[in-house]
Amino acid sequence: MDFEAIPGVGAKTADALTELDGSVDALETGDVATLARAPNISEGRAAAIARAAIRIRHDDPGGFLATDRARELYRDVLTLLQARAVTTYAEKRLKTLYPSATASRIEEVHEFTARAMKREPTAEIQDALAGVEPLSNPRDVTVRDRCLATTDAERYAEARKKIPELPVEVVEDARELAELARGYSTVVALDESFTGVTIEGDVRVEPDALETPAELVPERPLAFFAENRETLLAAVEVHQVAGMDAPLDIEELESALARVTTDGSVTGDDELARLTDAIADLDAGVSMAENVANDRLRDAIRERDVTIEGSDLLSLVEQGAGVDSLLSRELADEYDAAIEAAREHLIDTLSLDAGETEIARQAFPDEPSFPVEHDESVIARLREQLEAEKSRREERHKRDLAQTLADERESAEELVHAALELDVELAVSRFARDFDCVLPEFETGGNGFEIVGGRSPLLDVDFSAVEPVDYGVSGVALLSGVNSGGKTSTLDLVALIVILAQMGLPVPAESVRLGRFEELHYHGKTQGTLDAGAFESTLREFASLADGEAGRLVLVDELESITEPGASAKIIAGILEELGERDVTGVFVSHLADEIRDVADEDVAVDGIEAKGLVDGELVVERSPVKNHLARSTPELIVEKLADGGESGFYERLLEKFE
Ligand SMILES: Nc1ncnc2c1ncn2[C@@H]1O[C@H](COP(=O)(O)OP(=O)(O)OP(=O)(O)O)[C@@H](O)[C@H]1O
């Protein structure tokens, strides 16, 4: 958002607001608390900025749109533009464009528009844009196993602000630090004074730790990237399909994104995967290994004829020995082989490394027994070892990835921002293409307007059926014309083009030249005769119009209906004279052009929208007003048509009365 466009916001404040996360949304929603997070912006000031922004969007910041009808057309313009945006961001951003009387403001948007009009909107880009949203900050990352500690109140406040995810504790001395370490797996002491002091437990003394939040809380960048993964990937796609240079290495970002999961944990490391699998498969692996040993032993026993001398058997039985000793006597080699197979099986299926293998080997007893049973305490030890290694590995991996991602964060923000801004540009580009627009030309010091081939997108007919209108006025003119000839539509077209032009946007015409107007006063048609009170207030309104500043554009539609025709003609003539003396451009649509001219003291220019004739009882209209020409009225045309074929001479005589 162009914060500088907000009245009263200087460059410094604008910068601060631009840098603030979520400030555009905050302006849109009037979220004062968020705006007040910007440095040096108080709540009161934030509220004033939010109010001003709302005025900009819904009303009229620079006072350019001076009447309801003018504001209505501005809203119509926004609707047309917004309909061509894909993202909500672009819709909101388009709302920040407004018509201005300030040359620099118009010029600034012009640059944007010129860039936008070169953009080629494609369905592919549209599709990719559909997945892009403004980045969001994961709100509730809290970490409980680590804490920060300091002896200093200021450091405490700073830590709370910079690292809201971690608990921060105030301690008095090293003894309290050590005590703290009993409750946390890691304590990071922020005071220089603890350097070199021996403290029990995992206490790290890092006075600069607050400067590297990603190391203290790797969860932060991980959660940020996990939460925004879809948007980031969509923004990458937008860059690719639109052929834009990305502010970061796309492949690196994609591979990093593939490694964070939505819960902020990490994947994609072979060693980590091996440990995770080994832990998951441990029980099944042990029981399979057991089976391997037992199957082999069973086969060996089955195939073996055991001969034992009676005295030996007797001594064994007398010793109370069981079959096991028989096994060790007779099948020692087979037993060893079976156990070895079991161990190999376990080590292989779990892909254990050297250290783990050493433990795993002890899981099966060297002493023969049948069936073979594993030693559960050894397996528990192995599990512990695997889990410790896994969490160490995970921690390191997380830290590395977090560091990479933290470094990428700014570029990622740029990436998404560029994609969203592209949507704004494409909306303008599509608008320009859909309605055959050109950039208008402002004449310095000029007044009036000159439209060639203007076609309004707001008519009640399909845009392809809209006939082009040429019209130019400098000074004040009356616009006469046949009923339904397009007088109101012409005023709308003029207002629409001027609003777009002064927003800095392209206009739906072949060419447009205009002076930069200070204000747009557009008075729509009044419905019916007004009562005395309403008539008085309308008169007052027009009196103030006559008194106003120079450089205004005044468009008035059929003011005559406010009162009876004779009086109306006098009032309109009076207003025209007043305006004519000032540097005002005006178009007054009226059916009373002739009467007004009669009562006016000065020459009044009258333009006319003419019917070319009647075809099958329908008027065929030349939509472009003819300059300095009072158009014939519809009744006159009908009389003319009847006179052509009439025999009695009545219609001829009637026609003479019109001349
Ligand atoms: N440039 C144009 N191209 C195509 N159709 C047009 C154009 N201008 C006007 N029309 C058609 O003519 C209709 C009447 O136009 P509009 O209301 O502007 O006439 P008007 O002269 O103001 O009429 P009235 O005399 O009743 O005030 C419009 O609703 C529209 O359908």
TrEMBL record:
InterPro entries: DNA-bd_MutS2_arc, DNA_mismatch_repair_MutS_C, MutS, P-loop_NTPase, RuvA_2-like. GO terms for biological process: mismatch repair. ATP binds at G481, V482, N483, S484, G485, G486, K487, T488. Keywords: ATP-binding, Coiled coil, DNA-binding, Hydrolase, Nucleotide-binding. Residues 474-659 form the DNA mismatch repair proteins mutS family domain. The keyword Isomerase does not apply. Transmembrane segments: none annotated. GO terms for molecular function: ATP binding; ATP-dependent DNA damage sensor activity; hydrolase activity; mismatched DNA binding. Residues 372-399 form a coiled coil. Its cofactor is a divalent metal cation. Pfam families: MutS_V (PF00488). Belongs to the DNA mismatch repair MutS family. Archaeal Muts2 subfamily. Has ATPase and non-specific DNA-binding activities. This is DNA-binding protein MutS2. It comes from Haladaptatus litoreus.
